[in-house]
Amino acid sequence: MSLLLKIILPICCLLTFPSLFAQSQTNPTGYLLDCGAGESSSAGVTVSGLRYVTDEGFTSAGNITKLKQNDLVPILSTLRYFPDTSARKFCYSIPVIKGGKYLVKTTYYYGGFDGGDKPPVFDQIVEGTKWGVVDTSEDYANGLSSFYEIVVLAKANRLSVCVARNGETKSSPFMSALEVENLDDSLYNATDFANNALSTVARCCFDDKFNRIWQPFKDLNPVVISHHKVNPLEFWNVPPEKAFKNAITTSRGKRLQIQWPQISVSTGDYYIALYFQDNRTPSPYSWRVFDVLINGNKFYANLNVTTKGVTVYSTQWPLSGQTEIVLIPSNDMPVGPVINAAEVLQILPLGGKTLSKDVVAMLDLGRQFNNPPSDWSGDPCLPKENSWTGVTSNLTALNHIWLGGNKLSGTIPEMWSLKDLRSLHLENNQFEGPVPKSLSQLPHLSEIFLNNNKLDGQNSVTAQ
């Protein structure tokens, strides 16, 4: 038996599970994508009750392949990889409800798809913010796949999840599966999701309404079994009922000391939630009182724990390095302190978002072009080092579009909403049709190059 804890920590850590293992639960609201499954797999695959559909239609970039390894979980047997070395990022665009809170999970299993023996290292990006570095080498060497989680607020009706090359990338970025699942408003509701996201790590799974990943934990302290069920819906974060099945405790009058999380965490601010329940059969005597300390600082004083269960939390608590949780019983307690479960969520500041009007205009521009650059999806400007090919901006407003000599064709749409556009280079392509009237009216546009196209009246436009 073991205590069940959930860890939400820095991105440098990985979520891992054996490559022949699949999660088990009913499918929550959202999208479960089997990357690389192809159009022929439109019916999808079911993995232990979860229905995954092909990722076709959610991204226009990359190639697909099927791994040669036998006996893999279906969602690990295929992947989508992105070999274009000129592209700055490769994005999935997922329909969401604006203002909704979503759990995003990316899964990676290398399988030697590129003929090598070591997985590539690359970045992943969510909603224009660098999420972290994907390095699955250690897990793959141990026969494991890897996955990452993050909780993020949807600020529009589409949510972008991207991968991108970095200085360590030797091969092609790839993805095996992508999950985007809607969360109840109550979950982590004290977090400022307008400016932050919550990054996650854990190493095992069990049933959870929202398909979150929790980690079993066991140390040298005694483990007890609960004799009374709690109702998870009475807790804001809706922990699974199984989280209260076991608890760690100690003898009467002793402090309960737990070194957890078991890895060193990066310096930063964290949301911490701790869950407690008196494990005994309900009676007038089934309660216990103790103080809760984290790294020597008082987290909660005189906590009264009954068989109904209780949670205490902090919306912003500093952590750095190793963490110790200490429970100190009141002097007259006939039983020792107890703890059932915990969550530590690292606050990940978001890097901003390109102005919505600019995003809409650029997406429209991309739809009008034939064969636009493969990285024209996701946020056009952010992260800055992963902006769309030919696009530069000042903070979140788009300023320059330079796509001369890119073998583009189609028509050029109006660009009325790009109020901050200063230069436009579309020369040496194969565009046809009229020159947009907006180009002569944009207040800051001072540099326009449309020569060597097939436009009507391309020499008649002048910048203000």
From TrEMBL:
It holds the Pfam family Malectin_like. It is a single-pass membrane protein. SUPFAM superfamilies: L domain-like (SSF52058). Gene3D superfamilies: Galactose-binding lectin (2.60.120.430), Ribonuclease Inhibitor (3.80.10.10). Keywords: Membrane, Signal, Transmembrane, Transmembrane helix. The keyword Nucleus does not apply. It is found in: Membrane. Residues 33-346 form the Malectin-like domain. This is Malectin-like domain-containing protein. It comes from Cannabis sativa (Hemp).
